[in-house]
Each structure stands twice: as structure tokens, then as C-alpha cells.
Specification:
alpha/beta; binds ligand A2R; 6-stranded parallel beta sheet; 16% strand; elongated; 2 domains; 13 helices; Rossmann fold
């Protein structure tokens, strides 16, 4: 039997590259001197597409792969894949949910601690030699215990964050999803209303048209002067210009961000703010977790071609 041809536009995790080499005929497009020519010549052979990171899979690319059956995306967020265009062409799209919940939730709590207790700034203070010359780092205005947390996007990762936050004696004031869930937390049909009731807002919804700029100037105003915004979901969910303005005017107290609107470009205005903690999208970025995500990409492709079903489809 001939092995299915899988296209990989940009280099992915070794687990994916090696797993695909073993099982499929892999087109390593990132190594091609002329990727366009390779697509023109081999496009019709391609049955599977392995993708991830910032590489976009749009209608134009899908049109060059008329026999494509599956797009296997590395990452739980699949905002770089035009799922509607794939569905129209009968192409299954898969992501990597579940295997990164704990890692991303840990990062969210780390970001929350760094923001509330100014841990990054305190470390920079020590490294700059200021402890010895200027004395103790100033007391932080905020503390974790007793904070009231609202979760925008109480899904798999959101629930893992809630569990961890409870251990830090943070009150889970509620969550805002499009629909209510069977959980012991209060459901807020209105995000602004939830923001008014909490002092800490964690964003962990996917990035798409329905979530774009959900966190806007009005929500930040409602969060208020003791408010802390944590974004571990997608940069597009927060109106970054409104956030910068809110941080500058102390409309909210601080923000901890792992994701940005135009990665890897972070506005200098954010970098200059002392009440923003900024991480370079490291939510799931540990070797064990990235390996597990890579394996799930390979397993989705393998199961699809062997049994005609995907393990974690987002459409179909
Ligand atoms: O809206 P619902 O009831 O489907 O709940 C989902 C919620 N959500 C939204 N909430 C408010 N407005 C929206 N437009 C909206 N769209 C989705 O986000 C659900 O509770 C949550 C997403 O949870 P999961 O699908 O379990 O995703 P997971 O694995 O927790 O990852 C969330 C995102 C990823 O897509 C990446 O962007 C990032 O975290 O790493």
C-alpha cells in the first residue's frame, strides 16, 4: 500500500517530523528552494497537512491541495486555520486539546503571582544590585489571598485554572461563557457584569471572530482600579490599545499577558509599562507538554488514515 502524502509547510516539533517520516510520505516544504513549485507539482498528492505556530492555512492554500482530507493542527487554539473553508471542502481539522491543560493553567497561576506580587520586577531589582544599595523591595499593594476571580472561558483550561486558584485562597466569583455549564461556579451571561464583580479577570477563550476584542475599554473600566487582567488565551480577545490606555491611567491596576495581538511583536508602550508582566507565549511551552501535543498531531493523522476517524476533530 502506498503511504499517504503529508505536507508540512513549516518545521514542527521533532515528534511530529519523525512520526510523519515513519508513517507517511512527508513533504518538507520549509526545505524547498521554491515552495510554490513544489505545491504546483505535488499539491494533488497531498492527503494530510500538519501545521502549527503562526503559519496560516487559508482557502488559497486549501485550493492548491484538492485531495486534502485532514489538517492536523499543533495547539489547542486553531485560529490560524480557516475551519470554515476546510469544512466547505470536506476537510477535517484537528487540534491538541487536553494534553496541555495543566501546563497552561500552571502558567496562568504563575502569571497571576508575578503580576499580583510583582515577582518579575522584584527579581530585576535584585539583579540590578538595588537590594544591597537601596534596601528591601517595596511592599506590594496587592496579595493573592482573597482575590475575586472571574474566568472568561471556563473550558478545559479554565477549569484547571479555577482548581488551582482555589488552592491559593482565591474566590472563584464566576465565569462568562456563551452558555452555562454544570459547575459549582456562578454563571454571568454578561462579561461587563462579571468584570464589575471581580478584581481579577482571566482570559482563556479561543481567538476567533466571536471573541475578538471581547475585553474592551468598557470591561476594563468595570474591572476597576484594583483590577488585574490575565490573558493566557489569545491576544486578539483583548483590545490591546484600550488595555495600554487602561494601564497608563491606572483604570486597572496591572496586567499579566502571555499572548498578544501581533505576535511576536509586542508594542513598546506595553514594554515600557511597569504594571504589565509580559511573557513570550510560553503557556504550553515545556518539553514534556510539547511532546504530548506533537504525539497527538501524529496520532490524529495516523488514526485518520488507518481508520477514517480523527481523535480530536474540531469540525465534522
Ligand atoms: O461559549 P461556550 O459556552 O462554548 O464556552 C467556551 C468559551 N467560549 C466563549 N465564551 C464567551 N464568548 C465566546 N465568544 C466564547 N467562545 C468560546 O471558551 C468554553 O468554555 C471556553 C473554551 O474552552 P475549551 O473549548 O475547552 O478550550 P480550552 O482547551 O480550555 O482552550 C481555550 C483556549 C484555546 O483555544 C487557546 O486559544 C488558548 O486557550 O490556549
Amino acid at each position: 500500500m502506498t503511504r499517504p502524502t503529508v505536507l508540512m509547510p513549516s518545521r514542527m516539533h521533532d515528534v511530529v517530523v519523525e512520526g510523519c517520516e515513519e508513517r507517511f510520505e512527508l513533504i518538507r516544504l520549509w526545505e524547498a528552494a521554491d515552495p510554490d513549485a513544489v505545491l504546483a507539482e505535488r499539491g494533488a498528492d497531498v492527503r494530510g497537512l500538519a501545521t502549527g505556530g503562526h503559519h496560516t492555512v487559508d482557502a488559497a492554500l486549501l485550493d492548491r491541495l484538492p485531495n486534502l482530507q485532514i489538517v492536523a493542527n499543533f495547539g489547542v487554539g486553531y485560529d490560524t486555520v480557516d475551519v470554515e473553508a476546510a469544512t466547505e471542502r470536506g476537510v477535517i481539522v484537528t487540534n491538541t486539546p487536553g494534553v496541555l491543560d495543566d501546563e497552561v493553567a500552571d502558567t496562568a497561576l504563575g502569571l497571576m503571582l508575578m503580576t499580583v506580587r510583582e515577582l518579575g520586577r522584584a527579581e530585576r531589582y535584585l539583579r540590578a544590585g538595588r537590594w544591597a544599595t537601596e534596601g528591601n523591595y517595596p511592599l506590594t499593594d496587592l496579595t493573592m489571598t482573597g482575590r475575586r476571580l472571574g474566568i472568561l472561558g471556563l473550558g478545559r483550561i479554565g477549569e484547571a485554572i479555577a482548581k488551582r486558584a482555589e488552592a491559593f485562597k482565591v474566590t472563584i466569583a464566576g465565569y462568562h461563557n456563551r452558555s452555562r455549564k454544570d459547575v459549582p461556579y456562578r454563571y454571568y451571561p454578561s462579561l461587563v457584569e462579571m468584570a464589575r464583580d471581580v478584581d481579577t479577570l482571566v482570559v482563556v477563550v479561543p481567538g476567533n471572530a466571536s471573541t475578538r476584542h471581547l475585553v474592551n475599554a468598557e470591561v476594563l473600566e468595570a474591572l476597576g482600579p484594583d483590577g488585574v487582567l490575565i490573558n493566557i488565551g489569545r491576544g486578539t480577545v483583548v483590545d490591546e490599545a484600550a488595555l495600554i490606555a487602561a494601564l497608563k491611567t491606572r483604570t486597572i491596576r496591572a496586567a499579566g499577558l502571555d499572548v498578544f495581538e501581533d505576535e511576536p511583536n509586542v508594542p513598546q508602550e506595553l514594554i515600557d509599562l511597569d504594571n504589565a508582566v509580559l511573557l513570550p507565549h510560553v503557556g504550553s511551552a515545556s518539553k514534556p507538554t510539547r511532546r504530548a501535543m506533537g504525539q497527538l498531531v501524529v496520532d490524529n493523522l495516523t488514526t485518520w488514515f488507518a481508520e477514517g476517524r480523527a481523535l480530536t476533530p474540531v469540525n465534522g
